[in-house]
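stage 2 :: seqdesign
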């Protein structure tokens, strides 16, 4: 029997995630596994917390990676903060806002939504008006909507909520490590991300942070958190204090990888990382314009790390992506929901956001356009 792993080829990951992995992160994954209560591993856990606080721009003591993908981070935030009947407002302009609505509804929340056209940002004035009508325990929004390439006005929405009892919950799965995420300055109470996007670590961890307000809500619930695995009141006892209390066996080598990826980002410097993403985005957009390929999102609201482009007329969505994968070993993403078959999504996330990758995808797309 042949080993299927021997046949894996290196692919340039330029879709909506995962991104290309730093070589140093691959090395970290291969290091000897320690026990999840080993004293040295606990030092690494503390190092991860400190690095996450830097990258998330927060002083929250409960700043940790959830053992699971970004969707586990979403579930953890909602399941810990919602009790049945709680009024929740979800702001939706793409797939992941819709997923928030689904998760909150499953928990028995009274869910209201404000929905906006996919490819357009959330209208802050409409949110302000909605907040005049009703008190919400939680307002939730996606910062970087992966399905459309839109950057939502998270800071401005946070201003609307300052001084209110409402908790502010933000999805930063695609934004963390690619653009600024200022958790404390923006008044965010709960925020989650994923390891596989701009952090350039394999999928499997969901960095998350909870404010003291959010932690107080969790510790003073009237009912138990309905999900044992994601109960932050229990997980916090493993990540905090001198005496660590076992909760679950942590994914040791994945945590090595996350530590290394965060270390590389902090070493490069956050502003330098953000600048690199923006410069590679601008280079990509300029090259696409020369090819006659248009962007979906208006310039002020574009994400540098997730670029939604309109599929040129006469080119089949699936065939075009398959050709890029087979000939150039480049993976890009297709559209979702109402944008399926209409856009391609090109990721310039983390270690993928390098000049050689931009040049490679532009060359490949040029061949696609010329062959249509």
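stage 2 :: out
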């Amino acid at each position: 029997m042949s080993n299927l792993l021997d046949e894996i080829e290196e692919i340039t990951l330029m879709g909506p995630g995962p991104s290309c992995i730093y070589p140093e992160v691959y090395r970290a994954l291969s290091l000897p596994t320690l026990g999840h209560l080993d004293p040295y591993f606990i030092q690494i856990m503390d190092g991860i917390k400190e690095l996450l606080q830097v990258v998330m721009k927060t002083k929250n003591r409960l700043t940790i990676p959830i053992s699971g993908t970004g969707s586990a981070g979403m579930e953890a935030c909602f399941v810990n903060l919602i009790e049945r009947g709680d009024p929740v407002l979800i702001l939706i302009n793409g797939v992941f806002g819709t997923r928030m609505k689904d998760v909150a509804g499953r928990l028995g929340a009274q869910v209201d939504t404000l929905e906006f056209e996919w490819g357009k940002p959330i209208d802050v004035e409409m949110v302000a008006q909605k907040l005049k009508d009703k008190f919400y325990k939680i307002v939730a929004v996606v910062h970087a909507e992966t399905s459309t390439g839109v950057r939502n006005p998270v800071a401005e929405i946070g201003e609307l909520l300052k001084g209110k009892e409402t908790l502010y919950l933000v999805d930063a799965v695609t934004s963390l490590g690619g653009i600024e995420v200022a958790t404390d300055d923006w008044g965010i109470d709960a925020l989650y991300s994923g390891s596989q996007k701009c952090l350039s670590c394999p999928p499997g961890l969901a960095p998350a942070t909870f404010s003291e307000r959010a932690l107080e809500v969790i510790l003073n619930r009237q009912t138990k958190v309905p999900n044992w695995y994601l109960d932050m009141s229990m997980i916090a006892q493993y990540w905090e204090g001198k005496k660590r209390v076992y909760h679950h066996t942590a994914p040791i080598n994945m945590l090595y990888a996350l530590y290394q990826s965060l270390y590389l980002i902090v070493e490069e410097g956050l502003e330098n990382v953000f600048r690199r993403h923006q410069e590679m985005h601008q280079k990509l957009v300029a090259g696409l314009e020369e090819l006659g390929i248009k962007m979906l999102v208006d310039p002020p609201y574009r994400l540098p790390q997730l670029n939604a482009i309109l599929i040129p007329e006469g080119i089949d969505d699936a065939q075009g992506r398959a050709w890029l994968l087979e000939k150039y070993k480049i993976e890009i993403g297709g559209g979702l929901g109402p944008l399926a078959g209409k856009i391609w999504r090109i990721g310039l996330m983390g270690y993928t956001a390098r000049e050689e990758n931009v040049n490679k995808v532009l060359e490949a797309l040029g061949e696609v356009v010329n062959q249509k």
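stage 3 :: structure notes
- The two ends are 42 Å apart (CA to CA).
- The longest helix spans residues 270-290.
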